[in-house]
Amino acid sequence: MRLHRFVMTFLLASISCCISANEWVQLKGEPFVEYRERLSHFITDRKALVDANKGAMEVEAVLPYERFPNKSCSGPKIGVLMFHGLSDSPFALRDSAQALSDSCFYTRVMILPGHGTKAEDLINVTRDDWRQAVANATEQFSQQVDVVYLAGFSTGGALVTEYAWNNPSVVEGVVLFSPLFKINSSIDWLAPLLSPFINWLDHHESDDYAKYASIPVPAIAEAYKLAKEVRQIVVDTPAKVPVFLALSEEDATVDSSVTLEVFNASFKGHPYSEMVLYSAIQQAAFDEQVEIINTDLPEQRIFGLAHMAVHGAPDNPYYGEQGKYRICSWYLGEESRYQECREAEHNWFGERSDKLSSLSDVAARLSWNPYFDDLMERVSAFVSKTREL
């Protein structure tokens, strides 16, 4: 069995190495509609489907997309270009993109190389491939709007921050959801050392059509290097553009303490930068640029916001409060606990912690923000007040 798995992993990696990252990237001069059509064919041929009978729906879910403001909106055409995180897809930003479109902003959500198909496709992708995707997409997008904002979740957040710092004349401001400036691990530095020798620490097939269940070690190494490089750039040259940042103090994926350090050392230097910190333990902030919002919500069976919860709407039909998919990835490899987590009628939700485990032995990872509407109003206000700086 182990030999069979090794052979399969080797073959998949060999196949993946032959796929160019440019397959995912919008080429210079390529209209978005044509790019999306090209990408649709590519992903259809490569995507690992959860349900073969719903292949068209699963492909559509991970494709880049646009949301247009209502025709009654007036004034300059303000655009928000958005990028997802590592192992995710454009699907992760649907709620935010729609909410900003409803606020009269033109939104476009892009895909990063290696995503939307199968996790093996991340093995040979580099952070420079992701950078190229951001650069090309921003160049194309900037030709279609009057004002450009970049938004990013997690790894996408690091990428758009770096691009804005290097191109402040192009970007009016940056919106960050749970940005990656350091992986939340004391041994994250090991990933670059291990990546030449092993592809996986664990490898689970995903039952979520919009997200991978496992991330290969080389991709973790690239994310580690990217976060370190971006952190250095923004600390060395602070306050290039205004930044709106929203994160959870309990985030188990990114190190929120380092994100706070970056905000204080760099972003805070711009008078229009602001941060929303969701916290299950802190009650008040003593900083006019920081708002702390309580996420110890026993009446909703919530303790702390998880990494991907910050930008998710409670009414999302897939990831929301009554959604079809519940995130129980903590229990992968423990089939009975995994199923119990997925099916429990009155389960608790949050980010993994001793406190959450004491509330439920099979607690699920929270995938929506009970304050989502408030967050989107704050982002809209941030864009409105900074667009003419």
UniProtKB/TrEMBL annotation:
Keywords: Hydrolase, Signal
Pfam families, sorted: Hydrolase_4 (PF12146)
Signal sequence interval, chain numbering: 1-21
Gene3D superfamilies membership: alpha/beta hydrolase (3.40.50.1820)
Stretches assigned to coiled coil: none
Ranges of residues in domain Serine aminopeptidase S33: 76-202
Transmembrane segments: none
Keyword Signal: yes
InterPro entries, alphabetized: AB_hydrolase_fold, Hydrolase_4
EC number: 3.1.1.23
GO molecular function list: monoacylglycerol lipase activity
Protein name per its UniProtKB record: Thermostable monoacylglycerol lipase
